[in-house]
């Protein structure tokens, strides 16, 4: 059964404060500690911000969803600290495990009253129906989905927010997408999406 086109008008947030500088951050031409807007993140120092910014794709997706459903949107670093306390991230020295879906979903449901469910197995066909019904989904893809014509080395490892679907494509808000190319409402054909998608995620609803 086909799904009617759906595009939820979700505001966009990058995982870096300066969204126009994402190409410099992801290539290493500019250190995140030199982000001129780092203080907007709520970090206590440029170094704290630089540690978390490359790891906050899930936080950025959550901020988009909170804004969409008209909840106050916390700054990114205080929000990641909160998620650490909830067990959604586990930091050991300079390594971080996460985003861990189940404690993340439980915290989102308790804290904001949103319907949130972890899906360790979320086929693209089901994702299509879920987003087509007006829900949002944090989905695990390879980070190179920002340039979907290039084949990735593997699937998963980076979270994007699925905000719309058509018969041909899934529309993504990508926290590490390229300005004016793949940040907002980036349409990725379903056949190409399969190369990047790990088949798991978290579904959010009002």
Automatic annotation (TrEMBL):
Residues 9-175 form the Peptidase C39-like domain. It comes from the Bacteria. InterPro entries: Peptidase_C39-like. This is Peptidase C39-like domain-containing protein.
């Amino acid at each position: 059964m086909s799904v009617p086109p759906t595009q939820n008008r979700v505001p966009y947030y990058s995982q870096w404060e300066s969204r126009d500088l994402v190409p410099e951050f992801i290539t290493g031409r500019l250190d995140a500690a030199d982000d001129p807007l780092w203080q907007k993140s709520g970090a206590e120092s440029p170094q704290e911000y630089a540690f978390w910014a490359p790891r906050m794709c899930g936080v950025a997706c959550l901020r988009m969803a909170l804004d969409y459903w008209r909840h106050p949107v916390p700054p990114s670093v205080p929000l990641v600290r909160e998620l650490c306390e909830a067990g959604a991230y586990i930091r050991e020295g300079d390594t971080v495990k996460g985003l861990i879906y189940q404690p993340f979903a439980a915290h989102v449901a308790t804290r904001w009253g949103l319907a949130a469910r972890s899906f360790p197995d979320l086929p693209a066909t089901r994702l299509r129906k879920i987003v087509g019904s007006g829900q949002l989904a944090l989905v695990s893809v390879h980070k190179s989905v920002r340039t979907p014509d290039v084949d990735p080395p593997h699937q998963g490892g980076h979270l994007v927010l699925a905000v719309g679907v058509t018969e041909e494509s899934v529309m993504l808000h990508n926290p590490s997408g390229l300005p004016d190319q793949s940040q907002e409402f980036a349409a990725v054909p379903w056949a190409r999406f399969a190369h990047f998608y790990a088949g798991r995620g978290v579904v959010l609803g009002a």
